[in-house]
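Appendix B. Chain record.
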Amino acid sequence: MKLFYLLLITAVCSTVNAQKSSVLGRWKSIDDATGKELGVIHIYEEEGKIYGKVIEILNPKDRDKICHNCSGADKKQPILGLVVIQGLTKDGEEYSGGKILDPKHGKYYKCYINLENENKLKVRGYIGISLFGRTQYWHRVK
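Structure tokens predicted for this chain:
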């Protein structure tokens, strides 16, 4: 019986540690130019791919903003609720092969993300090759 409890505790601890070292969860986005906190993005997995949706906008003045410059189905949609990270797949320690939306300009860029540590996420959007792009560091919301 003691062995059973020991195995159960080990399994629970392993699951908790695996979740902490995952990109999945809620992340506070930080503007790379100003250092201001922008919003909270929920990163989730669907059919083996990683997506990120805006679930909170921190500046009350920006909460009702619309993505006027977006195209397609996102055009004139509220930024709150937009899926801004789409279709990333795991490639070693990073997730890549998808795209990220910059709602301010309405443009999609290639994207990769990876954990710097369990509470810091590197988010890189770029054109062509990753040399030509921007990096933001997001922080896990606890």
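Further analysis of this model is presented in Appendix C.
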